[in-house]
Amino acid sequence: MNATEQGSETPAKNWYRESECSLEAFADQLRNRVDRELRFPVETEHEVPIYDCRALDEVLIDPVRQRTLQAEWANVLLDGAGVLVLKNVFRDTAPVDEATRIFEEIIRQERESGTHGADHFAKAGANDRIWNAQEKLCLQAPSVFARYFSNAFIACVAQAWLGPGYQMTAQVNVVRPGGEAQQAHRDYHLGFQTVEEVQRFPAHVHKMSPFLTLQGAVAHSDMPIQSGPTKLLPFSQRYAEGYLACRRPDFRNFFEAHCVQLPLAKGDALFFNPALFHAAGANRTSDVQRMANLLQVSSAYGRAMETVDRMRMCEAVYPILLEYQTDGKLTSIDIDFVIACTAEGYAFPTNLDRDPPAGGLAPTSQQALLRRALDETWPQSMLREALQLQAWKRTS
Ligand SMILES: [Fe+2]
Fold this sequence. Notes:
Layout: H1 3-6, H2 23-31, E1 43-45, E2 48-52, H3 57-60, H4 63-79, E3 83-87, H5 94-113, E4 127-130, H6 133-140, H7 142-148, H8 152-162, E5 167-175, H9 195-199, H10 203-208, E6 213-219, E7 231-232, H11 242-245, H12 249-258, E8 269-272, E9 278-279, E10 290-298, H13 310-327, H14 332-340, H15 366-375, H16 380-394
Helix pairs in contact: 4-8, 5-6, 5-7, 6-7, 7-13, 13-16, 15-16
Bound molecules: fe (ii) ion.
């Protein structure tokens, strides 16, 4: 006999329908906040906590305090505002500027070759998009890539939401003067499927989807409000049926009436729960080329949106990491952050006949292989052979 037959409990709703979404219930979720005391932000603006990374250096070197900070970030993303701003993620903005130059060049090349990217949620026009900016930056400018992704704060927030072994992917979005806004949406996974498809997934999968991804944006230009930084609706990730509701006109109107925008400076970043209702804003300036590097970080247990040739990236960045390791330009920990954004961190799926567990429960991951190569200063050819052998072992 189940709970319904016993009549003792209201059965949980197992399937959601777009037509049954309630704007009133949504507004309730926005009002019924979880007011936790936050220890680390410097201020809160439009209910979004703002952290200054310059004040967090000492927190990151203390493992206990770092865990406390990560727990706070996870709570904000889970059932707090759903979004947090990290000011001065790049205190030295040189790697951001250098990456910007590479991205502009890639945009120019892709325009010329006709492979120019389009955005999911905005009309084509004044907007530019680089898909798989992660691999493209790594292959075209591995030294810029290494300095950019040796960033401790990006690693810290990714681990806070996803744990280790996360898969870094990135897409560049440029909204030029006159560029139009996106429509309100949620992000990958369920955010990138049709209403019909989303309705086929049971309720607990709606709950699971945001745990598989962390969404971020690094500002590559100053972003005054007029330039259209991301429009956000704090707490909207808490509405269980939101993957269906976010496309309804009444919810979109509500979003437009209540969303907030936060100005960012070059080198700042924001990170948000992918279930948060959000949309890139319109660029109403005459001169700001608004560029963001959108970091889409996937759980080790999820499938990333983009295919990334991580073997090729390992080969491209390896000589740079060897050099930076030798001359001390990056510490061993900095290099670990780069490895985390380059190589595959998860050992599965694999062919366990060819690739049995290596002294533990799991076979060697690509990240572990790259780390070993650096520790033992392998020549480039040895790394290539080891990567190829590992790739072969993982195939069926
Ligand atoms: Fe989005």
